Amino acid sequence: MIKTINPTTEEVITQYRFLDQVEVEKFINQTQQAQRVWKETGMADRAAGMRKAADTLIKHKSTYARLMAEEMGKPLPDGESEIEKCARVCHYYADHAADFLANEPVPSHSGKSVVTFQPLGIVFAIMPWNFPFWQVFRFAAPSLMAGNGAMLKHAPNVFGCAGAIESIFREAGFPEGLFQNLIIDTDMAAKVIAHPAISAVTFTGSTRAGRLVAEKAGQNLKKTVLELGGSDPYLILEDANLEIAIKACVTSRMINNGQSCISAKRFIVSHVIQSEFENRLVAGMAGIQPGNPLSPETKAGPMARADLRTALHEQVQKSIDLGAKCLTGGQIPAGKGYFYPPTVLTNIKRGMPAYQEELFGPVAAIITAHSEEEAIAIANDTSFGLGAAIFTEDLDKAEKMASVDIEAGSCYINSFVQSDPVLPFGGIKESGYGRELSHYGIREFVNIKTVYIK
């Protein structure tokens, strides 16, 4: 049995029993049978089901937002925004999947050569708790529209959200068993990866866990897409508009209570403007006080679990012990709930956790740069490569830096990093491989097949 604990009250919400091997085998067989029917279903019918799923999301968005608030601490307005984003990705693939997967004629020496895009089979998704609906829908919408079946192992603290998602697809009229929620532990997840009926695996989570998933999938020659951790650098150049920069930096650092892989984490600031930047960032961060996520006025809730808060605080304290200076926050508050205050650290140097590691919580790390070349070098001095941002008035220079110099899967200029259905999303280095969203995402889990007719 595993307990789901409300991170605000520390009370047990519910308990779940893990499925055993026989039950899992039964579910896999159901999904396999459903996928065989689904792959023969026309695109128009698939799209109709996906639009119904979007309608169901919007119809019940307040209920789903409350469920997220109770299970992992997301404030209600943020939860409703997440549900709206899920509906958008459903509509996006309902509208465009047929074009993305249309046969492509290719000139060749034969009379006719065509590239077709066929479903692989069943995609097994292992998803995290921080965006419990969005992370699932951004894989499920393209995978299902491509004709695949889908099985989900969600994070244990959001099993309620996982059940709700399965119900959404059922209510939308998708074949019974096409999308299955598996309440399983990590050992059983490894067995599912190895199962002959599973064709591919998509994983979002920590780099450490991603390595294990990739290893197991590789042993069984399964296609994988990994979206892993990040320590996104935000370069604040000397000519940056600080009003724009501060608003974007605070917003990004505090997304989802600071628990987002693409949050701004390392602020690499020109020494010329560092003092003013620090003062403004402290004011912005300190002005956001965590509270009950069920209150409509709350801008930030608790961290999702006690162990996550403990690990974050240890990183902060070790950085301070090594010479970092805490400008605000940095202390665990008394009382119930896994709250952690918005925190700003400066004087960050190489070797500190705040420089080397991902701080998965509301902590901003300021690093001084004495030139643009040094700022780029610091930005790239990391094992991660998910997102990045540059703030400057010189857009031509910024575009060159973003396109060529910064090592990341995406780089935003004068804005914070975010995922969007129309743009490919993913990382490089230890932030993973493969892409989600856009036409690139739907083609990750298809057989790109050549048909040659002499």
TrEMBL record:
Reply yes or no: does the keyword NADP apply. yes
Which InterPro entries has this protein been placed in? Ald_DH/histidinol_DH, Ald_DH_C, Ald_DH_N, Aldehyde_DH_dom, ALDH_GabD1-like, GABD/Sad-like
**Is the Oxidoreductase keyword given for this protein?**
yes
Keywords from UniProt, A to Z, are:
NADP, Oxidoreductase
Annotated Pfam families: Aldedh
Coiled coil location: none
Lineage top rank: taxon: Bacteria
Annotated Aldehyde dehydrogenase domain residues: 2-451
Q: Which SUPFAM superfamilies match?
A: ALDH-like
Family, similarity comment: Belongs to the aldehyde dehydrogenase family.
Q: What name does this protein carry?
A: NAD-dependent succinate-semialdehyde dehydrogenase
- Organism per entry: Agaribacillus aureus
Taxonomy-wise, where does this protein's organism fall, top ranks first? Bacteria, Pseudomonadati, Bacteroidota, Cytophagia, Cytophagales
